Amino acid sequence: MEQASPDSERLLQPATLEPLGHPDAELESVVGEEAEGAREDGSGDGKMTENNFWLKKIEISVSEAEKRTGRNAMNMQETYTAYLIETRSVEHIDGQSVLTDSLWRRYSEFELLRNYLLVYYPHIVVPPLPEKRAEFVWHKLSADNMDPDFVERRRIGLENFLLRVASHPILCRDRIFYLFLTQEGNWKETVNETGFQLKADSRLKALNATFRVKNPDKRFTELKHYSDELQSVISHLLRVRARVADRLYGVYKVHGNYGRVFRYASSIDDILEDEEHYADQLKEYLFYAEALRAVCRKHELMQYDLEMAAQDLASKKQQCEELATGTVRTFSLKGMTTKLFGQETPEQREARIKVLEEQINEGEQQLKSKNLEGREFVKNAWADIERFKEQKNRDLKEALISYAVMQISMCKKGIQVWTNAKECFSKM
C-alpha cells in the first residue's frame, strides 16, 4: 500500500484547538461572525439579517393541542394532533407594535424543522424533540400517543424545543426557523427548496467512516463515550423512577382503603402524574445523547474524507515520481502493461506527468481546504459542546433537586397522615 508523504501525513492529523477560554466568549465570537456573514450575504443560506433579527424580542408558546382527522400522502384517512403556536412581541419594533400571531403545526413539521437544522448546522448540538410515543411509563399511565395526558406533556415538550432553538445564539437567527413561527402556508415547500435532503449524510456512509477512519480525534471519541454514558445513566434512572412510582401508587391505594383519616391518599394520582414533568426533563437529556453522537458522526465523516483525499494525493505523487525516474517501487497494473507491451514514448510520459502535476496541485488545494474546514468545524463544535454541558449541568441539577423536594414533601404528608391515625387510635 502507498505511503503518504510527510506533508499529507501532517494534514491528516486531527485539528488542534487553541484554548477556548470561557464558552460564552467563544460563542459571542461565533455569533458575531454569523451576523457579519448575514449582513454581507443578505438572507443567504437560511440566515437572517440583523434588521430582521428579533426572535429574542418575542414570546413563543405552544398554547393548545387539537385532535384532527385528515388525509395523508397515500390518500388514506388518519387521525393526528395539531399544535397551536403563538408568538407575541415583547417590545415595539421600529416604533410599531407587533400583534400576536398564531398558526397550527403537526408533529411531523417539527421533525422536518429539526432535520433541516441537523443538516445545515452539523457542528451544533441541536435540541431534541419530545418522544413520539411514551417510554419509561409506569402502569397507571397510558402509552397511547393520543392519550390526553401524553398529548399535554408532548405539547410542553414541543414548546420547550422551540424555546431551546430560539435561545440558541446561532439557531435563533435561521430564516427557516423564523418562517416556521410565522408562515403557515407553503412552509414545507420553502424548506424543501433549500435542498437540505440532498446534503444530508447517508447512514451507510457515516457507518463506513466510523469503522475506517484511521486517525480519530480523541476528544470526539471521548465525547461518544460520554454520550453513551449519559444515555445509560438517565435510562437507568428513568426505569428506577417508573418502578418506584408503581410501588408508591400501590402503597397509597392500600392506605386509601383505611378510611377518611387517610384522605390524603386520594390525591396520589395527581401527585404521581405531576411527577411525570420531572421525568420528561430527564428524557430530554436522554434524547440529547443522540444529538451529541450526531456531531461526532459528522466529524468522523469529515476526517475520513480528509484521509481519503490525503491518500489519493500521496498515490498521485508516487505515480509522478515513478514516471519521472523510470522506476516502479510498487506492483501495479500499469507496470505489468509496460512490461508486456513496451515502454511509453517520452512524449506520452511527459503528457502523463503534466496531467498528474495538475491533479496534484488540485489535490493539494482540496486537501488544504478540507483541513481548514475540519479545524473550523472542531472549533465551532467544541464551543457549542461546552455551552451544552453548562446547560445540562444547570438543568439536571435543578430538575433533580425539584424531584427530591417533591419526594420529601410527599413523605412529610405521609408522616402527617400516620400521625393523625395514631392520635385517632390513642383516643379510642
Task: Explain this structure.
The chain is mostly helical and 428 residues long. The protein has two domains: 169 residues, Phox-like domain (PX Domain, 2-Layer Sandwich), CATH 3.30.1520; 214 residues, Up-down Bundle (Substrate Binding Domain Of Dnak, Chain:A, Domain 2), CATH 1.20.1270. Helix content is 64%, strand content 8%. The protein is built from twelve helices and three strands; from the N terminus they run ααβββαααααααααα. A three-stranded antiparallel sheet has the order 1-2-3. A hairpin with a 5-residue loop joins strand 1 and strand 2. The longest helix has 81 residues. It is elongated. Pfam families: PX. This is Sorting nexin 4. Belongs to the sorting nexin family.
Q: What topology, given as strand order, has the largest sheet? A: 1-2-3
Helix content: 55-70%
CATH homologous superfamily title of the largest domain: Arfaptin homology (AH) domain/BAR domain
Mean pLDDT across all amino acids: 76
